[in-house]
Specification:
With about 350 residues, this protein is an alpha/beta fold. It is about 35% helix and about 25% strand. Bound molecules: NADP nicotinamide-adenine-dinucleotide phosphate.
């Protein structure tokens, strides 16, 4: 592709981070922005010099020479918007979780493949230097045969009002799909697919003040999840996701010759100007597993949030422009695989039984 990649962004919440990441890329031009309220689309258009702002998603697809659409709206809208973009033969970036469930996500994957458009599920932790160091170390075989993988992560949302995230019809599986989409993606990117799960989910904060007016209403999604995981080639594992406590993202891979330990503060908070981002990846090799060494981390493009966003969207844009897919870029296939795991956790929570995963999306 000789010219710039012309991209339209749907969504002005986290969608603004996309604009920050793309605006300084000489190979990308942001040509349109959608928000449900026109004033929000117009404000973002003005801030980033975007020529078209609209409250009708279809208007984005009419922009001449549009190449790609980024869908960064609530989860329940992803499938419809992605469908429309694919029908119009546009490449698509869709934020995680790709859809409301695995079947819907797998459908989007098949449609995108059949239409010959390129498709990306945006999972930003993959681009973190510590995450890349984990991927390299896990693939090198230095810790030997993987016997277990454990993860935990918490974001404190106890005092949040009843935004769309806490409503099943808008968000899907609550914390399982929200935090789980990141952690399941990292675990499977590093050590391979999950074969079956046993899950327990709870809603510890069932009543929240309404977003407008403050009238208290019911949250009908889980805000706490514990799960046992069996990997196809990496032994047994566990994961815990919580919206009720602030905890770093921690993932440990235990091999028969050593251990890899990853720890990361919230990337989102740092991107939005709150807190530090100092992730780590460490290696402990047997028999001296008490001696832990830091893995080398290539952090030069993660000094400031704008640099990090630019790094992420440079890889994504290059792929959409026709280059080979960088390893950090996840497709709809991986987005669908993750959602099958989310579904299986919820099914297991209902039935009390282990649930097998489909072998392909
Ligand atoms: N990858 C990550 O780390 C990360 C981080 C945050 C969010 N996300 C994902 O990004 C997506 C958006 O989340 P967000 O936090 O940006 O949400 P948000 O702040 O609520 O913004 C959502 C955007 O979608 C629009 N919108 C709201 N309801 C809509 C509806 N029913 N139909 C069409 N448009 C609607 C909003 O328009 P108005 O405001 O004008 O009504 C706004 O432009 C979600 O899928 C979320 O999981 C990912």
């Amino acid at each position: 592709m000789a010219q710039k990649l012309r991209v339209a962004i749907a969504g002005t919440g986290f969608g603004e981070q996309y604009a920050i990441g793309m605006q300084s890329n000489p190979d990308v031009e942001i040509v349109g922005v959608f928000s449900r309220r026109l004033e929000r689309a117009a404000a973002m258009a003005q801030k980033f010099g975007i020529p078209v702002s609209t409250r009708n998603f279809e208007d984005l697809l009419k922009i001449p020479y549009l190449d790609a659409v980024a869908v960064v709206t609530p989860n329940s809208t992803h499938a419809e918007f992605v469908h429309e973009a694919i029908r119009a033969r546009k490449h698509v970036i869709c934020d995680k979780p790709l859809a409301m469930n695995g079947a819907e996500a797998a459908d989007l994957y098949r449609l995108a493949e059949a239409a010959g458009v390129r498709h990306v599920t945006f999972v930003p932790y993959r681009f973190s230097p510590a995450s890349i160091a984990m991927k390299t170390a896990a693939s090198s075989g230095q810790i030997g045969r993987v016997v277990s993988v454990t993860a935990s992560w918490g974001v404190d949302m106890r005092d949040e009002p009843l935004r769309w995230r806490f409503q099943r019809k808008l968000a899907g599986a609550g914390v399982v799909a929200d935090l789980g989409a990141h952690v399941v993606d990292l675990m499977t990117w590093w050590v391979g697919p999950i074969r079956r799960v046993l899950g327990r989910c709870k809603t510890l904060v069932p009543i929240r003040p309404g977003e407008v007016g403050g009238r208290r209403r019911k949250a009908d999604v889980p805000d706490e999840c514990w799960t046992l995981l069996e990997f196809a080639g990496a032994g047994i594992g566990s994961a815990k996701f919580s919206w009720n406590a602030r905890r770093n993202q921690v993932i440990e891979i235990e091999g028969d010759r050593g251990q890899l330990i990853y720890e990361s503060p919230s990337l989102l908070q740092w991107l939005q100007g709150r807190g530090e981002f100092t992730p780590s990846a460490r290696l402990a090799l047997a028999p001296e597993s008490a001696r832990v060494t830091d893995l080398p981390i290539e952090a030069k493009e993660f000094g400031r949030p704008e640099e990090a966003l630019n790094r992420m969207f440079r890889d994504i844009a290059a792929y959409l422009r026709g280059e080979e897919k960088p390893d950090c870029v996840a497709t709809f296939q991986e987005g669908a695989q993750t959602l099958h795991v989310v579904d299986a956790i919820e099914t297991s929570n209902r039935t009390g039984k282990w649930v097998e995963l489909p072998s392909s999306p």
